[in-house]
Amino acid sequence: xxxxxxxxxxxxxxxxxxxxxxWGLTGHxxxxxxxxxxxxxxAKREIRKMMGRERLAYxxxxxxxxxxxxxxxxxxxxxxxxxxxxxxxxxxxFEEKLKAQAGPSLYTQIKTLSSQIKDEKTSEKDRKxxxxxxxxxxxxxSQPLHVGRAEDLGGNKINVTYFGDKSNLHSVxxxxxxxxxxxxxxxxxxxxxxxxDEEVKQIQTGNLEDWLxxxxxxxNRIYAQTPNDSKLSYDYQYKFNDTMERQLLYGxxxxxxxxxxxx
Length: 263
Ligand SMILES: [Zn+2]
Prior knowledge:
P1 Nuclease, disulfide bond, glycoprotein
């Protein structure tokens, strides 16, 4: 991982709208921006030492950009963006199934990267890479279809139209719903980040498993209400806008909690 670190800046600009990325550019930046507003003083200082003066939002999409890297160095990270699971309606069963899964996933890697950051033996460069991935992956976690079903690749194989254009369910939730609102990421972060300290605390309770289950339950609701060949437009936005905005806010606040606990 270390040797290609120098490519990071170049790759950071290689965004492509051709691919179906979690939350799209704006969603990930909103989450990072909200998180940045809720960092403790200590976390802020430590993160600045690691990242320099760039805001979290600057790096929020980098783990998606490197999917376009052709050297194969980052190939192993492609499965870090999601965890697929059969529909569950009971937390205990969900948790058991989650823990029984073999191989790296969004779930295992958030834990692995967190311990890498805590480990003093980890090099500065690898700590920075781990942090950038965490910023991104806590966003993925809050996109419900990243805790969706394997059979349809988290909604990628559910065909829909969105205002007449061919699309799929995953892609609608990645970017289209967010982008339909036509706010910049800073505007949107500001509009959503209005909870009281008490409410913020409440949203930040729970652990990684709880947060994944939270997304999974919403994914089940999305699946139930968006069958294959659905024609989505204003009524779908109307139905799910609150949910989409809740997920952006919760993603940001929970990312902040994770980082505050780490540092
Ligand atoms: Zn992702």
